[in-house]
Structure formats: C-alpha cells, structure tokens
Amino acid sequence: xxxxxxxxxxxxxAALSRRWTTATEEVTVGESTWALFKPAxxxxxxxxxxxxxxxxxxxxxxxxxxxxxxxATLLREQGAGRSLLEMGCGLGLATVASMQAGFDVTATxxxxxxxxVTRGNAARNLQREPTVRLVNWREWPADLGTFDVVIAADVLxxxxxxxxxxxxxxxxxxxxxxxxxxxxxxxxxxxxRERIEELGLRIESVEKVKYExxxxxxxxxxxxxxxx
Length: 228
Fold this sequence. Notes:
Rossmann fold
C-alpha cells in the first residue's frame, strides 16, 4: 500500500482518493464552518482481515453526533498555552475545533488512515497540522506523556472499552487536568462511570445536549472529569 507519510495538501488528498471514493462535507459548528474530506461510504472500508484480527470496524470514517457536540464545547474553551490529546480522532472534527480554540493538539487513533485524514482536514481548514500518533488503547505508549486536556467522542461502544478508556484517561491526564468525554448513551457508559471512580477520577459536571438531524435523534452528554 502507498505510504502517506510526508504527503500534504493536494498530494495527500490524491493519495487517499486512490484508496477509496472520497467526499467533502461542510460542517458548521457554532459560527465556524469547516470542509471535512472523508471516505464517501464507511462501509466500503470494512476489512475482514482487520475484523478477524481484533474485531476492528472503520467507525472512524463516519461523522458522529458526539463529535459535533464535543467540537462545539471545545470552541468555548480557552486553549492558549494548554496541551490536548484526542483519543480516537476519526475525521478530525474535534481536533480541528481544539486547534482553532488555541490548544496544542496531539491527535491519536488506531487507524493510520484516520490520522492522515485528520491532519489533512486540519491543514485544509487551519493551514496547520496537529501532532498525530498511532495508538492502541490495549498498549498505551509509555512515552506519550500527559496533557492538560484529554478528549474523546463516542468511544464507549464496546463493553471492554469501559475499562480501557478509563485507564488510558488516567495515564494521559495531568494531575490538575480535565477530561471531556462525549457519549450518546452507549453500551459501556455505566461501567465506564464506575471504573473512573475506582481509578480516582470524579465527574465534575455533565452537560446534556439534544441532537437532531433527519431521522437521527440523540441526547449527547459531555462529562467533565478530574482527579478526585
């Protein structure tokens, strides 16, 4: 497969377009409108080999309501001088919002393609890229460091992620840092709430936001977490 390392701008878009059919979607969050380059159909990215390996599915290639709500929340944050890590950057919407808010962003995902799409979308809309890192939550990198803010959108869709996400948050968050987790009521949410308490995190606040677009209707909650 063609390497995308070092490619930027039109060259990166062209290389991604050789992998799959692509589309560009305009996304408005608050007063900002961004053009997101993405796969035209996430289903076309499903790989039997990836699924057999560890049941991976290309959820990264869809734009989920939780990402939109989290992006809106981040635009209201003061990011200047603060570091931020996104767990599961997907198409990069929350990363772009974080960068626009002034954060120094490190975007992570389990899929290489998600990282390339994210840095391309950041460059397209903000003329600069975030730091990107391929990260497996089951093998959290010891050298990744800690951050002032850690964010994640709609990542609790499997039971095992309750513990995995909670444990990674604890490893990535500075002692005085804050985590923002957006969730629409996924399967692992109750167990996640229990696990973070066991690990010394507390829920400082919960904001519930209704999202409606056509047949999609969700109530997304933004949990703000800190160490107890």
